[in-house]
Amino acid sequence: MADDEVKARLRAQIAAIESSGRAAGEGGRERSLEPAVSARSLPLDGEDASDRGHAQVSRPPKAGEDGTESEQERAFRKIERLACHREQASEALRGRLTREGFEAAAVDEALARAERCGLVDDCRYAEVLVRSRLAQGRGRRGIAAELAGLGIDAEVVAPLSNGSMEDGGEVERALDLLHRKPPRAKNRREAAYRRLIQKGFAADIAVTAARLWCDENPG
Known about the structure:
By secondary structure, the chain is mainly α.
C-alpha cells in the first residue's frame, strides 16, 4: 500500500475514533476507544493496540483565521507521518518535535491526542522493540536499558518479565548467539565474553555462556 493510501486510511480511522469520542461525551456516556491502525514495523502475532481506557477525546484544533494549521495540529500531523512507517515511543517523539522547534505545550497536546486515538502506544512500542531485539540476539539487560532510556519500565513488558527469560533461558540465548556467530580470536573465551557483553547480556550470563561454549567447542 502506498504511503498516501496508508495516511488516508489512518486519518479516516483517527477521525472516526475522535468522532465517536465526541458523540460519547455529548450523550453523557463514555465509551472505550478502538485503536488506530497500528504503525508498520515488525508484525506481532495476535497483536492489537492497547485500549486507552474510557477517555473522552477532545476536538482537534481548528485552523487559524488565515487558514493555516495550528502548531498543535502540525505537531500531530508530524507524529502521524512518523507512525505511518513504524511504531514510535512517546518520549522519543517528544524529543524529536522539541528539537524541530515545536513549543512544549503543542507537543504535549499533540502527543496526548495521538495516545488517545491509539496512534502512539508505549506498551505496544515496547513489545515490538523487545521482540525485535530478542530476534537480533540482544541480551535482556541491554534491552531493559534501552527501554529505560525511553522512560518505559521493562518489567511491564511481557517478553522481558517472563520467567523463562531469566538465568537458564538467557544463557541458552547467549549460547545460541555464539553458535550462530562464533568469535574469531586467540583467547576464545574472552572473545566470547566480550561479544555477549556488547550484545547486552549481564556479566554473569556472559561468563557462564562463554565457558559452556568453549567446553562444547574445544579449539
